[in-house]
Amino acid sequence: MSIETRKSLGAGLSLLLLGLAVFLPTLGQLPLIRSEAMYALIPQEMLNSGRWLTPILNGAPYVDKPPMLYWLNLITFKLLGVSDWAARLPTFGLALGELLATFLIGSLLFSRRVGWLAGVILLTTIGFFILHEELLTDHLITLTLAWGIYFFLRWQQQPRPLYALAFHLCLAIGLLSKGFIGLLFPLAIVGLFGLLLADFRQWRIFWHPGGLILFLLLTLPWFIGMELQNPGFLYYHVVNEQIGRFLGQRVPLDIVGFSIPMFWLFVLIWLMPWSPFLPAALVRVWPRQWFPLRRANQGPALLIIWAAVVLGFFTLCSLRIEYYSLPALPPLALVLGWRLEQFLANPRDWPMATSLALLPLMTLSMAALVPLFEQVCSDNRREFLGMFELLRPIAHQIKYWLPALALLSALLGWLRRPRLCLLAMGTTALATLYFTFQCMVVLSPNLSDRLMGEYIRQHAGPTDVVIMESIEEFEYGASLRFYAQRPILMVKRHGVPRFGFPVPPEKNYLISPEQLKELWTIHNRVYVLADDALPRDHFLQDAPVARAAGGKHLLTNQPD
Question: What's the average model confidence in pLDDT over 184-201?
């Protein structure tokens, strides 16, 4: 093994160890919140039923999303048992895979140091940290896209069949993770890159015979099996969930998307505390000639195309959510890593000094933007309403510590101590993650139904009925269902929640307000989880309270 290989292995290993040091201490400290719990509940129900083909949510088929994340969590549950902390382990593993891919791509395009710096930047951004504390299919898209780019670059250097097979493997996993964007993103990025190179031989990787066969063998069986087991699945999944979602014509239209300005604002928020350096980095890395691309411009151009395809697609998409920008974070981290290496080589860089001056101001603004975050988040999800008041003690600490550390970084940069400056910036980033996690610890119990679910699991009898009130999307009932460990009913008001795919009558768990009243008055014992922010039916107004927390009350018609 050569010295360079040993250095690369050491750098990659140190990055993975740093990732473990960041994520492992958080394991088991956050409950599953409403927006993520379905990714733990579905594999649990698939495991219990012994059916690995059709995802099951609260006892009914759930065909909105492909199964890859469910399968990963299902395997974890089979090995380690069902728990919220076990559900997070695959997500942490995906985070490490994304870091390693970022490091390897940076090493190929620029240098080992750029790759390592980019990995550290990616790990310590607010967005990468927060989003990997949640269960999301977007992690698999980010992972497969990054590794697909890596294997394409290796194939570009030396067109071996192994690299083509690995590229198509990434396409297959991406398609089985979140649908057609898992296929579209890498094809669009590599296709545009080959077009700008004026070298169409780059496209040969698309139709490599072995790669195509592997892709079809891995993807077609699930789609065919789902259509056979759930007639109408292909039309619903392709037309409604893929095309309809992009055009804003999905049925049911129960998602409140972010505006384009807010979506882009969150891109900058997700990159904090490194986002002040992005504008100057993009200006410096921007190729002077785009067609045909010269060799020196190929790396920077590929990163810009990568980020532009992801962000451009979701800008055009009618239903965009703040975390959809996650697959664009690795290329932006690589641009920033390249920029910081330039700073190490030239400490007299005046644009860097300007960016350093912005760093204390942007860290100070994080506490000041709390009211804006509350408004944006509560507009998207009602359960955020009023919760950010809980963050004021942490915001008070943030407005002192983070600007102070950022100012120290700026001073060291202005004194032309680039290594010490980067060390201080890294400390600022880690401190940002610490305060971010403290905010999550405060908010997540109120965004989760763990307390209510555990109470029901401990006190409810086998014939008792559990009902969830005031919910727009039936997926948001998964947190209560996961922790209660029993099926639940949901009240349908004003047309929501609503199934998009037909559910058999015997599997339908949506009830009318009239059925709620009937169960409440006739059934022996009923538990109703009610939201304090919305008015209650008159027969629930004076109901006994079994448990109260986070703006929600668990009501019962028969006190324990």
Answer: 91
Spatial distance between the Cα atoms of 447 and 445, rounded to a whole number of angstroms? 5
CB-based burial, 359-389: b 16+ in 10 Å, e otherwise: bbebbbebbeebeebbebbbebbbbbbebbe
Q: What is the pLDDT of residue 263?
A: 92
What's the sign of the alpha-carbon dihedral 122, 126, 132, 135?
negative
pLDDT in the model for residue 291: 82
The distance from CA 280 to its chain's CA centroid, rounded to whole angstroms, is 27
Evaluate the omega torsion of the peptide bond into residue 90 and state whether it is cis, within 30 degrees of 0: no
Tokens of 357: 């001056």
- Tell me the pairing of strands 60-61 and 465-468: unpaired
Are 529 and 411 within one domain? no
Does the predicted TM-score (pTM) go above 0.90? yes
Count of beta carbons in the 10 Å neighbourhood of residue 207: 9
What pLDDT is recorded for position 367? 60
Best CA proximity match to 133, nearest among 363, 125, 473, 475: 125
Does residue 395 carry a pLDDT above 70?
Answer: yes
**46-99 pLDDT, tens per residue?**
999 998 999 999 999 999 999 999 999 999 999 999 999 999 999 999 999 999
| In a shared domain, residues 197 and 140 | yes
Q: Which two tokens stand for residue 522?
A: 């006739």
Q: How far apart are CA 6 and CA 320, in angstroms?
A: 43
- Cα–Cα distance list, 17 to 95, 337, 340 (Å): 12, 19, 22
Residue 160 has pLDDT above 90, yes or no: yes
Q: What are 311-335's pLDDT values in tens digits?
A: 999 999 988 888 999 999 999 999 9
DSSP labels, 511-540: E-HHHHHHHHHHSS-EEEEEETTS---GGG
Q: What is the span of the domain harbouring residue 156? A: 3-30+63-345
Task: Give me the half-sphere count of Cα atoms (radius 13 Å) on the Cβ side of residue 354.
Answer: 7
Are residues 68 and 200 located together in one domain of the fold? yes
- Coil vs helix vs strand at 179: coil
The C-alpha atoms of residue 46 and residue 470 are separated, in whole angstroms, by: 27
Radius of gyration of the chain (CA): 25
Q: Which of 311, 345, 379 is the endpoint of a domain? A: 345
Residue 1 pLDDT greater than 80, yes or no: no
Residue after which a domain boundary falls, among 413, 443, 473: 443
Above pLDDT 90, what percent of the chain? 66
